[in-house]
Amino acid sequence: MNTLGDFPAAMRETAREENVEMIDLNVMSKTLFEALGPEKSARAFVHYPSGSFPGQEKELKDDTHFSNYGAYQLAKCIVQGLKNNRSGLSDYLLKDLPEFGPSCPDAVEFWDFPHSPLVNVTKPDGN
Q: What residues contact 79, with CB distance under 8 A and at least 6 apart?
């Protein structure tokens, strides 16, 4: 479901008007999530049953923030976008990076990246 309204089209038009490079992550992520399908695309977001983490008593269902898997797949989209644009930034990428097509994401069933260790965060005074 598209919840972004006219924003993607406005972004593309602005990039054309300003003559700047643009990575269309809207199109790439749509392709990625359609390739994954409804069940597997949920694994790209913060969806974890209760008890997955210490002190987590409730199920987590967040369709805004990415899991490690989802963040990695979108990072690969951005890298591919830099390569496709032949952006000056692409000069800083490793030369032997494989091509990535969002229609062929890494298999979520075989993908593993450990979660960051839990830490206590103290909010600084004044914020």
A: 93, 97, 100
